[in-house]
Design brief:
The protein has 429 residues and is an alpha/beta fold. Among the domains are: 157 residues, Dihydrodipicolinate Reductase, domain 2 (2-Layer Sandwich), CATH 3.30.360; 52 residues, no CATH class. The chain contains 14 helices and 17 strands. Strand 3, helix 1 and strand 4 form a beta-alpha-beta unit. The longest helix has 20 residues.
């Protein structure tokens, strides 16, 4: 249990423990609520805003939230006198700027899900209001808090590979994950969410900026939606997988395969604990029942970003749907050594050129929780900052996140306009 001695009004705390208001009880919001119940105490979440009644009721029951602190809209919750000390802001991406500004002006410290917002101007607004309010904000760039990335950072900062010359990073999204989240799901259409590099990979560019630790000078990017398109639908494929697809036996994206039974994807689609018959019935109308070649998706399924940093340091980032597994892989090339890290396998290989090409193989302990335990470290760091009134434990403030978001927006401008984009072009929006 995490105790605090931070002095605030009685209306926003219970028994000298930090209390939380939750805006958005989707997968991420529910995960943080469950963590708080298990690691702080039931009742740590003292207010909930969520339009879906089942999700709202689940969190309310989990934390014993009174009816008058349950809201269908974050606007209604944040219009009240402050109901907690910290706002966990896991609203949809397009609502981040409004909910963040309302929360900060209402006096909340905040955990803000990435991305900060869906436009650079809105990111700048959040940073400005955060500075005006004097509140503490952690932007949930989980990779900065991941123990493997932290060890890579330590090796670089210790000078074991000399000066960094180049870095390349792969984000392997995995074919079913792509089909669920970025074709059928909430992040498949820019009009409902935002572009892929921002929604999925902004914390990849954030960790690259962090590891290189120099100002990024320019970005160049290529990518497109190549495969998940109408013209690639198999002959005779229906609009929905439940309507008798002729290639169902071979298609890895068949909704009947992906969401059948008690697997992780059925949970993410809101189909957990249903019978096979009930799942089939839901897939007749659910967005997750659509053929992946016949949806309204428009985000890219692969993208490459090239970055130039101060001093001539270069970096590349590749995001691709087309892998049989998910995860991140990083290679850092230095003047005196080389690092190859497999983030999800939790291994690092270090070669030191000036020590006879000495090879060290490092395996880090498994950690439970989302993003390899990094999400737990994110929220712990914010609790520590609020408890001690010391922001030093926060690695991803709004100003730090804004720095890497500029790189993301520059890369996407480059992809759309087919040109190299200087980062200075993005300053001021």
């Amino acid at each position: 249990m995490i105790e605090t001695n931070l002095m605030t009004s009685n209306s926003s705390r219970t028994d000298n423990r930090i209390t939380f208001a939750l805006a958005g009880a989707g997968g991420r919001g529910s995960m943080f609520a469950e963590w708080l119940r298990s690691n702080v105490c039931p009742g740590a979440v003292s207010a909930i805003a969520e339009p879906d009644a089942a999700r709202r009721n689940s969190i309310a029951e989990m934390h014993g939230i009174p009816h008058d602190r349950q809201f269908t809209s974050f606007r209604d919750m944040l219009a009240q006198p402050k109901l907690a000390e910290v706002l966990i802001n896991t609203t949809m991406d397009r609502h981040h700027v409004e909910s963040a500004v309302m929360g900060l002006r209402a006096g909340y410290h905040m955990l803000l899900e990435k991305p900060m917002a869906t436009t650079l101007e809105d990111c700048e607004t959040i940073d400005r209001v955060r500075r005006e309010s004097g509140r503490m904000v952690t932007v949930c760039h989980s990779l900065r808090y991941h123990s493997v990335f932290a060890e890579v950072r330590r090796i670089i900062r210790a000078g074991l590979i000399g000066d960094v010359v180049s870095l390349d990073q792969l984000e392997a999204v995995e074919i079913v994950h792509q089909s669920h989240s970025f074709v059928r799901g909430n992040w498949g259409n820019e009009g409902r969410s935002t572009f892929m590099l921002l929604s999925k990979s902004c914390h990849d560019l954030d960790i690259i900026v962090d590891l290189i630790d120099r100002d990024c000078v320019s970005a160049h990017s290529y990518g497109s939606l190549t495969y998940f398109r109408q013209e690639n639908a198999p002959p005779g494929a229906p609009d929905r997988c439940v309507d008798g697809c002729p290639v169902e036996d071979h298609c890895p994206y068949s909704a009947l395969k992906v969401y059948a039974g008690a697997n992780g994807w059925s949970h993410h689609a809101g189909l957990a604990d249903l019978s096979a018959t009930e799942i089939r019935e839901r897939l007749k109308t659910s967005p997750y029942g659509r053929c992946v070649f016949k949806t309204d998706n428009d985000v890219v399924d692969h993208q490459v970003v090239s970055l130039e940093f101060e001093g001539g340091v270069t970096a590349t980032f590749t995001m691709t749907a087309f892998t049989p597994w998910g995860g991140r892989y990083v290679r850092v090339h230095g003047t005196k050594g080389y690092i190859e890290a497999r983030i999800d396998q939790r291994t690092i290989d270090l070669y030191e050129f000036w020590e006879g090409n000495k090879h060290s193989h490092i395996t880090l302990e498994e950690q439970s929780g989302m993003h390899g335990g990094a999400d737990e470290t994110v929220i712990k760091s914010l609790i520590k900052a609020v408890s001690t009134n010391d922001v030093s434990s926060i690695l991803t403030s709004t100003s730090e996140s804004l720095r890497s978001h500029r790189v993301v927006f520059a890369a996407e401008r480059s992809r759309r306009e087919g040109r190299r984009v200087p980062i200075l072009e993005m300053v001021g929006g």
